[in-house]
Amino acid sequence: MQTIARANRVTSWKINGVEKHNGEIVDYYNVFRNMKLALKDYAQGGDEIDPPVKEKAELFILLDDAIEQGLAFCHEKDVPLREVLGSADVFEKLGRFNVFANALLANDEWRKGFNVYENTITSLYEACKPEVLGRGKGREVAAFQYLRGVIDSLIGQTDIDAISLKIAELLDESVVVNDAEAFKARQYNAEYQIIQKGKTWDLSKINFDKLREEFKQATYKNIEIADLRAFLQHKIELMLQQNATRTDFAQRLQQIIDAYNSGGSSTENSYEELIKFTEDLRAEEERHIREGLSEDELELFDLLKKDKMTQEETQKVRLAAKSLLHRLLEEQPKVLVQDWYKDTQTKKMVRSAVEKVLDSNLPESYDRVLFREKCDNVFYLMLDYASHGRKWAA
Questions:
Q1: S-S: 13 plus which of 34, 47, 49, 165, CB 3.0-4.6 Å?
Q2: Does 28 score more than 70 pLDDT?
Q3: What percent of the chain has a predicted confidence (pLDDT) above 70?
Q4: What are the residues whose beta carbons fall under 8 Å from the beta carbon of 164, sequence distance 6 or more?
Q5: What does the CA dihedral 107, 108, 109, 111 come to, rounded to 10 degrees?
Q6: Residues 351-374 pLDDT 10s
């Protein structure tokens, strides 16, 4: 019975993982989830009548199905990977993989869906070793891995050298049955490398007019968008670590991404939105200089300020932020003692210090309710940072 159950699992995972049409949600992750269940069944086996070490015929079926579904998925997204694998020059014309990457980067769900298929195919291929070697599957697996590596190289998400080495090893394994193919693979092995293609970004040195002009001339516009987007997402992550009040920037970027993924914005409009966002992000990164504050002082200033402040009130809030940070880090008696956030008494001391400084420095227009709100904002952010071993831990 267990053998039958496992055989049924082999066929059912394919059905569950198929992309749904007619406006239904695509559940690519069923592919990987059900594949893992099938591998688990295979590895665990049954009782003495059904031993855990069996022929790998079931896994070969899974691998064939995964490759077939991956190729079908690519075809639906205008990525003719099947046709490329059917040609003899797959190792010679790797530039077309940029075309494929550009197509998959047009939508986040397409890229994520392809990643699921590549993960599935690679995992099954590894599970089928060593019997799978020499069966001609390595070439197909390598094509999926190469396209995945090209995409990741464009958005800076992987160790490119490690991926290139992995693919080279896979090709060596896959051509052992054919001397002619082995020679061709070795001949073009040097070209079958993934190069980190993404730009090296420095927010302070970006020439926005040049970026706009380069985009007009770009052949692969989705790739240009993905590259800039990846930089911005990483940059916002770093800037949020400096200042937790910058969540509106993260939300704004996500809105641009969502519009792009939904097809509600053309590539040109999406890139222009990203450029404008980048300009604003640079202004935000430099704002502490204009305010005459350090990064930590600016974060406290942002927590303490209120809407529609006068120039005099703004200056008082700046001084309040400076005074508070000075009290916490430099003045005696010291309140940020070791593990202060773990003890009720030391937490009260810190809270009291915050309230005392702010009571002396915030504008008189801050009534009791607003004052309490600002004290809470500062104290609970300090508590969160300290409990995670970041700022103001001790």
A1: 34
A2: no
A3: 73
A4: 149, 192, 193, 194
A5: 90
A6: 999 999 999 999 999 999 999 999
Quote the percentage of the chain above a pLDDT of 90. Answer: 56
The domains of the chain are located at 2-188, 203-285, 297-387
- 196: pLDDT strictly greater than 80: no
DSSP-H helix ranges across 243-367: 247-262, 267-285, 287-291, 295-304, 311-329, 344-361
DSSP letter string, 217-266: H-S-HHHHHHHHHHHHHHHHHHHHHH-GGGHHHHHHHHHHHHHHHHT-S-
What is the pTM assigned to this prediction? 0.77
Contacts 24+ apart (CB under 8 A), 313-321: 313/363, 313/365, 316/361, 316/362, 316/363, 317/362, 317/363, 318/291, 318/292, 318/293, 319/361, 320/357, 320/358, 320/361, 320/362, 321/293, 321/297
Name the DSSP class of 19: P
Q: Classify the C-alpha dihedral 337-343-344-347 as positive or negative.
A: positive
Closest of 282, 294, 266, 392 to residue 336, by C-alpha: 392
Residue 35: C-alpha distances to residues 10, 65, 111, 118, 280 (Å): 8, 10, 19, 12, 45
Band of pLDDT at residue 16, cut at 50, 70 and 90: very low
Residues in the chain: 394
Task: Give the pLDDT of residue 6.
Answer: 38
Return d(Cα 184, Cα 100) in angstroms, integer: 23
Asked if 90 contacts 140 with a C-beta cutoff of 8 angstroms, the reply is no
Phi and psi of 155, rounded to 5°?
-115, 15
What are the pLDDT digits (tens) for 246-265?
A: 999 999 999 999 999 988 78
Long-range (24+ apart) CB contacts under 8 A made by 305-314 are: 306/366, 306/370, 309/363, 312/363, 313/363, 313/365
